[in-house]
Fold this protein.
Amino acid sequence: MFESLSEKVQSTFRNISGRGRIDEDGVRSAMDDVRTALLEADVHQDVVKQFCDEVVIEAIGQEVTKSLKPGEEMIGLVHQKLIDLMSPPQGTSTDPIMLVEPAPTIVMLCGLQGSGKTTTCGKLAAYLKQRGRSVMLAAADLQRPAAVEQLKIVAEQVDTEGKGNVKVHFYAEPDKCSEYGKATGVAVGVCLRALGEARKAKVDVLILDTAGRLHIDNDLMKELEGINRALNPHQIYLIVDAMVGQDAVNSAKAFHQRLAVDGIILTKFDSDTRGGAALSVKSVTGAPIKFIGVGERFDALEEFHPQRMAGRILGMGDVVSLVEKAQAEVSEEDAEKLAEKMASGKLTMDDFVKQLKSIRRMGPMKQLLGMLPGVGSMLKNVQVDEKQLDQLEGMVNSMTKKERDDIKLLNKSRIKRIAKGSGTTPTDVNKLTKQFEMMQKMTKQMAGTGFGGKMKAMKEMSKGGGNLIPGMSNMPTLGGRGSTKTLGVKSKFKQRKKRK
Amino acid sequence: MGLFSTTVSAIRKGLARTREAVGSGFRSLLMGRALDDELISEIEQRLIAADVGVAATTSIIKNLRQAYKDKEIVRGEDTLEFLKQQLIGRWEETDRSLAVAQTKPTVILVAGINGSGKTTSVAKITKSLKEQGRTVLLAAADTYRAAATEQLEIWSNRLDVQIVKGEAGSDPAAVVFDACDAAIARHVDALVIDTAGRLHTQDNLMRQLTKIRDVVAKKIPGAPHEVLLVLDATAGQNAITQAKVFAKAINVTGIFLAKLDGTAKGGIVVAIQDVLGIPVKLIGVGETLDDVEAFDPTSFMQAMFEA
Ligand SMILES: Nc1nc2c(ncn2[C@@H]2O[C@H](COP(=O)(O)OP(=O)(O)OP(=O)(O)O)[C@@H](O)[C@H]2O)c(=O)[nH]1
Ligand SMILES: [Mg+2]
């Protein structure tokens, strides 16, 4: 999409310049493509309009019209501006959660129904626990059936399974649920008593899980104001579903007006949403985006990176996240060992399956491929058959250690045995060994040569090699276009690592 | 004879007041005005604001422009009719009521992404079934999310219906298997299955859903008779992909559009109708059991143009 967007913009410019001079109107009409892209990513239309108008002015100011590559420059401008808009203002603290003295720091979560507040409570607790901060989760959702029970289970889970040695406490008054709706201020009372308990238990952070509510429900919004007045939380976070559409601005505005939110947490980012809501919500509240949720488990919380989000909104792949995921799965030592083996052509079946396993642990293959720039839009036709990958693992598991080390040992009877053991056919096994041998050859070539050689090997791979990973058919050839970009991100990533 | 066609009139509550505001909002935009470029662009903005999406909006606006150019439409009043045709015309006159099986039990499978409103919608459907004098059995097939079973159990107590559940973390397909057996043994009229929320990008969980459907189909011939995808009315363009993937995994027969009582318009169902042709059957308009209505294209469309 990013690729195609930038191509579109460039071709628009080409068309215009073919006819004559590129002028302000030309820049404007090129922005139409950007406008569509942003709307399709669910950025609110007013935000889109303001954004595009500003880019036009900047583009003209920077005399993009005189540039030889106006299309590229425009896209660069758009990308950078998105990053700027989503970045926290200069000079603000980069710590996602500000802690205060004396403890406890009070954090209140609020948002629409189903946005993910309770799950996020657990994630924040785990995040803090891992950093040595004790937490108390307080159940202020007295409305939804079993909401209290849900938070209790979440708290226990983080307490027992979360990394770190401090305790995760839980506070609730389940009997108050029946009073709810009949008397006002019940939830306020629960929160106040939770604060008392939090002080007694000397926890570092108290997190209030409030009930989901509509921003136009005056009574329930008043309840939040009541909690705000009574406890004066240090941080109020608005929890927003990343898949939300144009209405995001309405709800965010209302919550912000009533509560002056301090930060945004975007949830369900493990979906393939482009996540334009990030921009909408940021622009109506001005509050920084603190975290994104990327899964249902309590460890699926990530800090927010404007740069990646900008790429995602524009439909560019998220290479940095991919690299990070890979890093989490493969240790540096392993990677080095592997590189050596590859270079010497001694890659074994075990290595191969190990690789495959760690790749699969990172997530569904299709999602991973989607993170590569330019691949996203091509993926529509790719069939990633996870079943076939299972089958492959099955075949390797049916081999003896010796066979796995040296695939040449496989003769007819051995192949038959493996097929039987893995519920496949000898043809399947043969296919696997062929593919593996080809891969061995190519990885040797790739590892052993410089950059040019790598490109050559890659090209061969996409030309003759076909499906290197069985189960992945119709894989489009990436061609040379991605190469320079990938390099750019790699070196950027190195820089980032150094800074850490 | 289907469900909801009769009960619905009795339970209009949430929307009644919105509907009034809606009709007038839409009218005041169009009435007494001549159609011009400005009005066209206002209409376009409202469609986008309603999450109808760029593609569907562009096609509607293109037709409107053409009609304007051809002088088919001059007055705002005519525009109203034109838009009605453009939008409502997309939804054929179909029976929007929930399917009822020839031989009981009727099985209704409910699925959707996390937090879209599945469990609440299951409760609402059950209430309506009961009001029709039908007996219902609930299957708590969300064994994953913390306290999901407890949540449905509370509803089952309030509704006074039976429930089949499993251990937390157990195989949801096994719960459904048992529920099918129980539904047959107890001769209930309907079995309503609540499933865990899952993102359409989680291949393994989508496969699990297919498996659940397969179990139902094997146990009860012709089932599931209704497969409802619960969509959140606030959903943006990603809901198209969502619907596609769910449709592929479990052959969705209808959409339950929840949370229409907010300010979101749920216009994404227009795009979904364009791309997939899945009808919207029911809408959710609040958190209580009565907050459910049959989908009505006309009032839905009018609501879309309300500022
Ligand atoms: N305002 C409003 N809220 C709703 C509606 N339907 C559901 N909700 C609320 O949305 C929240 C989530 O609803 P659930 O029914 O638990 O959603 P779910 O899809 O089962 O959630 P998971 O099982 O966690 O994926 C709850 O707070 C419900 O009360 C509706 O039509 N309108
Ligand atoms: Mg549920």
Q: What stands out?
A: Chain B has twelve helices and eight strands. The first strand of chain B starts at residue 106 and ends at 111.
